[in-house]
Design goal:
Blueprint: E1 9-14, H1 18-30, E2 35-40, H2 43-50, E3 64-67, H3 76-83, E4 95-99, H4 104-112, E5 117-120, H5 125-142
Parallel strand pairs: 1-2, 1-3, 3-4, 4-5
Helix pairs in contact: 1-5
C-alpha cells in the first residue's frame, strides 16, 4: 500500500535557542517539508500565538507543537502542563518535547504531563535533521492529527 501524500502542517516551534531555530528552519527548507513553521521563543510567546494575540492576530491553530523544555520566563514544562490541562482548548494538539535533556526525570515528567513524544536533540546536524524529518513525516503522513 502506498503511503499517503504528506499533509501540510502548521508547526509551532517553541524554542529560545536561535541556533536550534535556524537548524529547524534549514531542515524544513532543505527537505521540502510541507507546511508552515511558526516560532515562539518561550511559553508566554507560545500562548500569545495560540490565543492569536498581538502580532499573532489571525494565527492558525498548529497541527503540531515542537517544545523545548529549558526557556526563560515560562519554560516548556509549565507550558506543557497548561496545554494538556483537562480544561485546555489545546489539549488535543500533539506536543513533541524536543530537548537537549536526556534526563530520565524530564522524560518521565513530560509523559506524565501528556506529551505525545519525547525526542532528545542530536548534537550533530545529520541526527538533528533526521529527527525533525521523521517527526514531520510521522505527524504529516502516518498519524491522524485532530486539527487538520
Amino acid at each position: 500500500m502506498a503511503p499517503e501524500a504528506l499533509r501540510s502542517l502548521h508547526v509551532l516551534l517553541v524554542e529560545d535557542d536561535a541556533g536550534d531555530v535556524a537548524m529547524v528552519e534549514e531542515v524544513f527548507a532543505s527537505n521540502g517539508l510541507a507546511g508552515m513553521l511558526h516560532h515562539a521563543d518561550d511559553g508566554l510567546a507560545a500562548l500569545r500565538f495560540l490565543r492569536a494575540e498581538d502580532e499573532h492576530a489571525g494565527a492558525p491553530t498548529p497541527d503540531l507543537i515542537l517544545l523545548d523544555l529549558n526557556m526563560p520566563r515560562m519554560d516548556g514544562r509549565e507550558l506543557l502542563s497548561i496545554l494538556k490541562d483537562e480544561a485546555s482548548e489545546w489539549k488535543t494538539i500533539p506536543v513533541v518535547v524536543f530537548s537537549t535533556s536526556a534526563a530520565l526525570e524530564d522524560v518521565v515528567a513530560s509523559y506524565a504531563n501528556h506529551a505525545n513524544a519525547y525526542v532528545t536533540k542530536s548534537l550533530d546536524f545529520d541526527g538533528f535533521q533526521r529527527s525533525i524529518t521523521e517527526i514531520h513525516r510521522f505527524f504529516g503522513e502516518i498519524a491522524s492529527v485532530p486539527t487538520s
